[in-house]
Amino acid sequence: MADSKISDLTALTSPASADQFVLVDADAGVTKKITFANLNSAISGAVAADDIGVGDAAVNIATSAGSITIDAQAGDTDIIFKGTDNTSDITALTLDMSEAGAATFNSTVTATGFIIGSASINETELEILDGATLSTTELNYVDGVTSAIQTQLDAKQATITGSATTIDTESLTASRAVISNGSQKIAVSATTDTELGYVSGVTSAIQTQLNTKSHINYNLTKTGTYTAVAGDKILCDTSGGAFTITLPASPSAGDEVHVLDATASFDSNNLTIGRNSKKIQGADADLTITTQNTGIGLVFYNDTYGWRVLVDAYDVDVTEL
Q1: Cys bridge to 255: 43, 145, 159, 251, which one at CB 3.0-4.6 A?
Q2: Cα 236 vs. chain centroid, distance in angstroms?
Q3: Does domain 215-320 have CATH number 2.60.120.640?
Q4: Please, which residues bridge with residue 104 across strands?
Q5: Can you tell me the distance from the alpha carbon of 96 to that of 79, in angstroms, rounded to the nearest whole number?
Q6: Sign of the alpha-carbon dihedral angle for 229, 215, 203, 207
Q7: Sign of the CA dihedral running 58, 62, 68, 74
Q8: Chunked in runs of 10, what are the mean pLDDT values of the chain (321 residues)?
Q9: Predicted local distance difference test score (pLDDT) of residue 20
Q10: pLDDT (0 to 100) of residue 293
Q11: How many CA atoms does the CB half-sphere of 69 hold within 13 Å?
């Protein structure tokens, strides 16, 4: 090949693998040759990834076959995607290799769907939750639901059956007690809620209590001196001679003792009520009953007023007793 100036040589746009280049080995001070194939292999295999400098234009990484693999091979070293937001250098995405590649995005993620485990969630399903204001507690109410809730609710019994059928559509009379009627159905009674309230606080059968309160049941008969206890109701027979009924020594407020002339003899043989250290009608004196057919009750109030007298069975003044 004749010597020529470089400017006179024809450009070689697509060198073949066997084409040769002339190089000057400056260290050895000699001229050497290398094929295009060997030069290409030396260049592609010798450049380390961390030796690649910063470019000044767009970069396209492409391959016509096979995968493109980015591999951080050192233990627990992350893969980090960075960029510039306006003028700020930001980390857009970090793949944490110490957590099996857990992804941390700096901002929102736009996708048409997600697969979490074996569950596939699409946009329509996500839109159901968009704007929802449910609390964790409220959301947990659907835990265990196996099919559409509304479908289950619609299938539930809508009409009351059995004893309550009478109130399915009817309005009950206001302010009345509810009972079961002769047909074993729910119905209202003639008793109002006000009347029903009168039994509030009752602790035993009302009629039994009324029977014991409606009149005085005299439960003792005495023909001679006797010391009464609270609650005594005494039929006093003085036909054989006058005697004394002594009141309880330590009465409490409200204690009662009743006496009645059983034989119409109080006028001829007086009955004396012994006060037993407590006052009677506010006086420090015993009470002598001298009127026949008299019945009285004595109710203790306090030490100042003592036993208070009420007339049970005869229209007389206390002074006449």
Answers
A1: 251
A2: 67
A3: yes
A4: 94
A5: 7
A6: positive
A7: negative
A8: 68 78 79 80 65 79 89 88 90 91 88 80 73 80 87 75 72 85 83 85 80 69 96 96 97 96 96 97 96 94 96 52 54
A9: 78
A10: 93
A11: 6
Distances (CA, A) of 220 to 94, 216, 217: 103, 12, 9
Please name which of 256, 290, 257 lies closest in space to residue 272, comparing C-alpha atoms.
Answer: 290
Chain region(s) in the chain for CATH 2.60.120.640: 215-320
SS3 content of the chain, % helix, strand, coil (to 5): 20, 30, 50
Q: Under a CB-based contact definition with an 8 Å cutoff, are residues 272 and 263 in contact? A: no
Determine if the pTM surpasses 0.70: no
* CA gap 108, 127 in Å, rounded: 16
Phi, psi of 23 (to 5 degrees): -125, 150
- Can you read off the two tokens belonging to residue 157? 């019994």
**β-pair type (287-289, 306-311):** unpaired
135-to-29, 128, 139 alpha-carbon distances in Å: 82, 15, 6
Nearest CA-CA partner of 312 in 266, 246, 257: 257
Which residue blocks in 58-189 are alpha helix, DSSP H?
A: 123-129, 136-140, 149-155
